[in-house]
Amino acid sequence: MKKFKNFYTPTSKKWRRIGDAILAVGTMVTAGGLLGFDQLQEIFTDKEIKIIIGIAFVLGVTGKFLTNFFNEDSQEPKP
């Protein structure tokens, strides 16, 4: 599969940082939603809270996964 060729190549430092930041934000929102569930019930319905937590989880994991497709920019010419 040529589409996944860059997934296993080294990811540049810039993209690793972006991916880690996306995952950290998603984790904080998800954990905060779970820890503050009782307080959030005063504002949102149970279904809305589940949707918010689910979206944060999916976006965090997907963002981290997608940044693995950006590889190191090498200065060597390709043969």
Outline the structure in words.
This protein starts with 12 loop residues before the first helix and ends in a 12-residue tail after the last helix. Helices cover 62% and strands 0% of the residues. It is mainly α and 79 residues long. The mean pLDDT is 84. The longest helix has 23 residues, at 13-35. The chain has one domain. It is built from three helices and no strands. The protein has helices spanning 13-35, 37-40, 46-67.
Give a quick rundown of the structure.
Helix content is 62%, strand content 0%.
Q: How many helix segments? A: 3
Number of beta strands = 0
What is the C-alpha radius of gyration, as a whole number of Å? 18 Å
Q: Pairing-aware structural class of the strands and helices?
A: mainly alpha
Mean of pLDDT: 84
Count of discrete domains = 1
Q: Residue ranges: pLDDT <50 for 5 or more in a row?
A: none
User: Roughly how much helix do the residues carry, as a percent range?
Assistant: 55-70%
Task: Write the SSE topology.
Elements: H1 13-35, H2 37-40, H3 46-67
Entry keywords:
79 residues; mainly alpha; elongated
